[in-house]
Task: inverse folding
């Protein structure tokens, strides 16, 4: 669980990121989940975009992805969501503790 200060720090880092994955009309499938998990293992922080033709809202897609891979939704704005998953073995992002 990340603290509000850590969440604010992650939001700042995500500000300059471009969406890496898109969720379309097919929804969230197992192949995407595996790719997102692999991406987060290396980068820890990512932005996804939910297309207009998707049956999911950005909130729903981010929540489902986070639940299935054990990540955290940092924020959702419009059709974009930011997801964070700490790499326990080799952390990339050094968050303040409190």
Result:
């Amino acid at each position: 669980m990340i603290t509000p200060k850590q969440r604010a720090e992650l939001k700042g880092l995500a500000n300059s990121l471009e969406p890496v994955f898109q969720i379309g009309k097919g929804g969230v499938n197992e192949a995407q989940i595996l790719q997102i998990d692999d991406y987060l293992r290396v980068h820890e922080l990512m932005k996804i975009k939910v297309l207009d033709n998707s049956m999911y809202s950005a909130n729903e897609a981010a929540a489902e992805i986070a639940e299935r891979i054990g990540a955290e939704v940092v924020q959702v704005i419009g059709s974009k969501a930011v997801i964070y998953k700490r790499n326990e073995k080799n952390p990339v992002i050094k968050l303040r503790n409190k």
About this structure: Residues 4-84 form a domain with the Translation Initiation Factor IF3 fold (CATH 3.30.110.60). The beta strands are 21-23, 45-50, 72-77, 80-84. The chain is about 40% helix and 20% strand.
